[in-house]
Structures are given as C-alpha cells and as structure tokens.
Amino acid sequence: EPSHNAGMLLRSAIVAALLTLSVLPVEAGGLARATKLPPAVHRQPTWVFFRDRAGAAVREADALVSDRALARRAMRGTESGITERDMPVDPAYVAAVQAMGGRVRVQSRWLNAISVEIDPALRRGLTSLPFVASVQPVRVGHGDGERNEIATSGVADTDYGFSLPQVAQMNLLTLHARGFRGAGMVIGILDTGFNRVHEAFHSESHPLNVIAEWDFINNDGNTGIEAGDDPQQHRHGTWILGTLASYLPGQVVGAAYEASYVLAKTEVVATETQIEEDYYVAGLEFIEAHGADVATSSLAYFDWYTPADFDGLTAVTTIAVNIATSNGLICLTANGNGGHDRDPSTATLGAPADALDVISCGAVDESGVIAGFSSDGPTADGRVKPELLARGVATATINSTEPTGLSAVSGTSLSTPILAGAVTCVLQARPDLTVASMRTTLFATATDFSVSGFSDPLFVRGYGIVQADAAARSGHATADINLDAVVDSADLAILLGAWGACSACDGCPADLDGDCDVGAADLSVLLGEWN
Which of 115, 363, 461, 505 is the most buried (most CB within 10 A)? Predict the structure, then answer.
C-alpha cells in the first residue's frame, strides 16, 4: 500500500488521465447512478469497496443530509451531525473503475463503495488498484410475500373494516384513540414500487402524503407504474403501503395513516432480473437522508451467503442497516418465509434480519398462532430472531392495481409494515425513545415476554406479538391518558368526555380499570394519581 503522499500523487495521475470521462451527477439525495443501461450479458454485478475518501469533500456531505435527518440523529442516534460516512465516494476512484471496464450502478456513501457491472476477467484487476480494499459479488434478493391477491367482498361492522383484527391484535386501537396515528412522523419504505391510484390513498381527511420518492431501478423520480415495468412490478410495494397508509373507514384503515412517507423503488420483480442488494443500500441511504423516523423493508438476501455470514456484520444490506440505526433510524425488516422447526440450532432467516439493532418480524394468524412459513433464528452469533410478531396471514390491504377493492395477502412481508406502523405510533407518543430503548420497551411489553419473562428458546416467536399501547404507556401513570407525563385537567377532560359504556373495550383509553365502562372507579384512579 503506497504512502499517503504517493497515494495522492496516484490519485492526481488518475484524474489527469481520465479528464475525458464524465463524473456521474449526484441525484436523489446524493446517490449517484449511471445512465440507464440494459443488463450486460457477460457482466457480473460486483461491489467495489475503497480504502479511503481522499478526494471527497465534507461540504458535499452537508448538502446531502436534510435538517430533519440531522435532528433525528441528534435525538436518537449514537452518532450525531455529519460524519465521514456521509462523504461521497471519491470521484477519481469511480473514474478509475470505469476506465477498467466497470459500469457503475450505484454509489454508496455509507459503505464507501460502488456497485458495478464488469466482465469477470476484468474484475480480478480491480484488486490491484491501491485504493481498492476489497471486491465481492452482489447478492440476489428474494421477496418474501405470498403474492396471491384475494378479492374481499362486503363491509365489516366497524370503521376499521377488514383491518380491525390486525390492528387490534397489536394493541394499536387504544393508541390510535389516544390520538397517536403517525402525525408528524416519516416512514420510509423499500419495495417494488407503489401504485397510488386506490381510493384509500385519496381520502379528503387523510390523503396519502409522500414527501420524497426515487426509483433506483429506472433511475428516476417515479416509483409508480412505468413503461417497461413487469406487469407485477408494482403489486408487492402497493400492498405494503396499503397496510400502512390506507384510510377508507368501513373497509381498511392503515396502521399509521397520518404519517408521511418516503418511497424507494428498489426490488426488481421480473424473473430474468436479479433483485440486487445495491438498490437496497442506495434506497436506505435515501430514506435516512430525507429524515425518516422509521424504515421498513420486506426482502431477504441469502444466495452466496452461508448461515455463518448472518452474524450482524457481514452482508452488505446488514452493514447498511447497522449504519442507519446508529444514525437513529428505527429499522424493521421481514425475518423471511423459510419456515421453522423446533431445533434452536438451525435458522432460516436472511440478511438484513441479522443486523445488530434491526427489529426483525415474524408472522402470526388472526388467533396469534405462528405462521408455518415464518422463518426462525437465531443469528450466527446466537441473537434472538425473529424478535416481534404481527399478523401476516390473510392480512387486509388494498387492491394493488384497481382504484377500488381489497386484498388479503400473506407473508412476513405483510406483518412487517403493520408492525412498523405500530412502532411509528409508539414513537410519536414517546419521542424520547432511542433505537435501543425502543427495542427494549417493545420487547418487554410484547405478549410472550410479558407473561413468561423470556423470549422463545426455540427462536420461532421471539418476544411475541407487539403491544403498541402498552409500549407507549411504559413508565407512565395509569391515568396519564394523553401520555404527556402528567396526570392533570387534560386527562380529566378526556375521561369525563368518554363517561359511560365504551363502544368497544379496545380503543377506550379512559377505561382505566379495564371494565369496558368509564365511570366513578376510573375517576377515582385518576384523582389518586393526580400530578
């Protein structure tokens, strides 16, 4: 390895030799992409990791990270402000790889790496460059949703419609009734694309609010249906968005329907095209830079990886999630649809479910029974996976193509976003929670752990089904109805306004003694905890 001065001289020589090459423009929050190219027949997707950032500028990093992202880092991250990881990849290094035959797909600031398509014979030469730390293949990703759209008819008898069971199961109805439905929060979604024509996204009172979007597959700002897309490209992502953001009372209501959204189209559906992890990394950087509070994804990577690689430190997507969580972004991901057994020494999860602080999600049915397809853990280093559960069997969402109609879809792909919606509402109620304290609070209040005091020793159920209202109330007085850390006249007004029988025991936060009626006993509890 050359000395620093020699390295700088080498870099200058590279710049001089490649003046005729154009530097990639910075687009979509600083995630540079090459121009659109058809997949090369004899080229292989490859990650190229660099040793340093010799020619990168801190001032460029400042422009790539939003003020909202910096505020979230300061509040919830283990690191705050602009860091070296925010600096762009050295353009001279990129140009050198291009000169050796690499076609750049994405650049990752966090990984200080680029993903390129390159002839295998030329790839070996990349390791001879003194500023290249390592080279490895891009992995294939696998969507983990059961992609069967089932039309649903009729109208349920509550405002939540067909989504009532999945929302109630997470103890989210009461938290919604307290007023925490995601307002002021931003959720980022990584998926196949998002068709936003459905009437559930266009309610006059709660319309879908997308603050940023980017298509990393086609390198443009449209995450909807585009010319050339596979006919099913939009379906999976639309289902996911539907579980979160729908608002169609009497039919379907999303878990965080008042939140705003950042959308990243990163998963390729067409069978002849790999779903590559480089788009995932780029999409997660985009979501974090735009200030999201929570990110959710339903994708697993395991081709070319061995079970030993799921140690929280190896897979590229896992490393990206580790960086995102250190920046205070709460990340959720599907644990996978590989099934489970009763052997705690075997596992079927995929990356990035093994990330150190990601919340990995399994799936249950309406009765809370674990789904047969839900993947088990542990990680290679023995950590609990999955950690939390939500409904992933016949989960209610919207029709992915038509402007009306509903669907019932199964998979940990579906349990993950509704769980992400619940976590978002908890975070709205408890903005003091960091990534670490959110995890601790969610695990301690989940169904299985709250009863037994243990996580599942077979690594199938984790800590159990998330209980959103219990998590939000953790550490608060019973009578603190509005969760502002004080029992006062505001709580009294809520209680008196709800006086009488509850229309439903779930969703009645003023029912302090749990008898499905707001009366003198509840008033006594409130007065006893005043202030």
Answer: 363
